[in-house]
Amino acid sequence: MQEYYNFKDVEERWQQHWEENDLFESTLNLDKPEYYTLEMFPYPSGNLHMGHVRVYSIGDVIARFKRMQGYNVLHPMGWDAFGLPAENAAIERDIHPNNWTWDNIANMKKQLESLGISYDWDREVATCHPDYYKWTQWLFLQLYKQGLAYKEAASVNWCPGCETVLANEQVVNDACERCDTEVIEKNLAQWFFKITDYADDLLADHELLEEWPERVKIMQRNWIGRSEGVEIKFPLEELDEELEVFTTRPDTIYGATYMVLAPGHPLVKELVAGNEEEEEVLNFVAEMEEKDEEERTSPESEKIGVFTGSYAINPMTEERIPILVANYVLMGYGTGAIMAVPAHDQRDFDFAKKYDLEIKVVVEPEDKDLSGETLEEAYTEDGVLVNSDILNGLDVEAAFEKIANYMEENNIGSRQVNYRLRDWLVSRQRYWGTPIPVVYCDECGVVPVPEEELPVELPTDVKFTGAGESPLAQADDFISTTCPECGANAKRETDTMDTFVDSSWYFLRYTDPKNDEQIFDSKKSNYWMNVDQYIGGIEHAILHLLYARFFMKFINDLGLADAREPFEKLLAQGMVLKDGAKMSKSKGNVVDPMEIIDKYGADTARLFILFAAPPEKDLEWSDEGVEGASRFLNRVWRLASDYVEQIKELDLDNLELSDLDKKEAELNREIHQAIKKVSADLDERKNFNTAISAVMELVNAIYSYLNDVEEENVELLGTAIKTTILLLAPFAPHMTEEIWFELGYGDSIHQQEWPDYDEEALKKDEITIVVQINGKVRDRVEVDADISEEDLKEIVLSQDKVQEYLEDKEVVKTIVVPKKLVNLVIK
RNA sequence: GCCGGGGUGGCGGAAUUGGCAGACGCAUCGGACUUAAAAUCCGAUGGGCCUUAGUGCCCGUGUGGGUUCGAGUCCCACCCCCGGCACCA
Question: If one looks up domain A620-761 in CATH, what number appears?
Answer without folding.
Answer: 1.10.730.10
